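re: that chain from earlier
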Amino acid sequence: MRRAAAVLAGLAVLAPVASAQVIPTFRKDSKADGRGALDIVRVAMARGTDGRLRGEVTMEDEWSTADLRAGAGPSGSVCLTLYTRREPGAEPADWLVCATAPRQGEVLRGRVLRDRANGLPRQVGAATVTRPTARTVYLRFAQSTIDGPAAVRFAAETVTRARGCPRPLGCRDSAPDAPDTANLTLRTTAPSG
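^ sequence. v structure.
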């Protein structure tokens, strides 16, 4: 009887931990289908327990900030492409959440950009960038920066400008391959008004 009570007490302690875990929606991508150092093999998104969104982009091989700076011209990037109103494959996507390299140093800069059909993307917020492994980058940002949609269709894209990459576009990889996306539902009922 005491043992059963101890097991139940242990489960009660673990229940909040299990419910606090982030369970991502993800898509895998073919290995070696991209050119350059940043070949994406997995993209995922989830809503954290704090309400913020977390995008996750994992590459085939280990990579560093230097891989984004390689070559002439602007820095390369690792971006989530988010569709909240436009159809996937439409140019441009509604939002971009990107990690870019600074001119010096290793700390990646995270930005949330509103993509516009009639001009360059405009920054609307910041994203927190972390590197949990040498292959993966996390991009965390507030739902409010993308207008709190009911659902997000998402993909990822990398751009590098290393030697041998075409100019000015650079070497690119996307996951899943365009125009495919993955879908993350954020709310099941319409907001009251």
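The helical segments are 2-20, 65-69.
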